[in-house]
Amino acid sequence: MTAVRRALDTLYLWSGYVAAVFLVAIAATIIAQIVGRFFGVAIDSTESAGFSMAAATFLGLAHTFKQGAHIRVSLLVGLTKGRVRQAVELWSVGFGAAGMAYFSYWAGDLVYYSYVFHEISPGLLAVPFWIPRLAMALGGVILTIALVDEFIRILTGAVPSYEANAETVLSGPGDE
């Protein structure tokens, strides 16, 4: 395994870990809200839970993609074989990479201008908007990297990692 491969796999894994931390943050805010009600304290968790949900969603995209856990409509791909299949896979992954690169550019632009114009969330927390939007932009960039990585993998004739890993995800550990 090359150093680049290890670095990319580590990036995807840690992005997934950070997404999991934000899922725990959602649970913690909901639990705090429930406990607060028992003691007559109103805790507004809507904003923090929403920001955490956005971060968990976008930061988890690359890891779930590489693990084959995204929903894929593979009817057309399943009907093809050999070079035609490789071409269809390249087209779909390349189209996804281009779309995510476009999204990531504009998400980064949104973060930048949120910072420049000092946009603040309108809720009780008054969080600078560039902070939660940064997770969205970073998640988009990491997914773009994962898609380009997969494009190169398919181009070199390797089995797409999302296919290889999807069999493990679907069958589960220990299933024979």
TrEMBL record:
It comes from the Bacteria. Keywords: Cell inner membrane, Cell membrane, Membrane, Transmembrane, Transmembrane helix, Transport. The chain crosses the membrane at residues 12-36, 48-66, 87-107, 127-148. It holds the Pfam family DctQ. GO terms for biological process: C4-dicarboxylate transport. This is TRAP transporter small permease protein. Part of the tripartite ATP-independent periplasmic (TRAP) transport system. It is a multi-pass membrane protein. Belongs to the TRAP transporter small permease family. GO terms for cellular component: plasma membrane. The complex comprises the extracytoplasmic solute receptor protein and the two transmembrane proteins. One of its GO terms (molecular function) is transmembrane transporter activity. Its main location: membrane. Residues 26-156 form the Tripartite ATP-independent periplasmic transporters DctQ component domain. InterPro entries: DctQ, TRAP_DctQ. It is found in: Cell inner membrane.
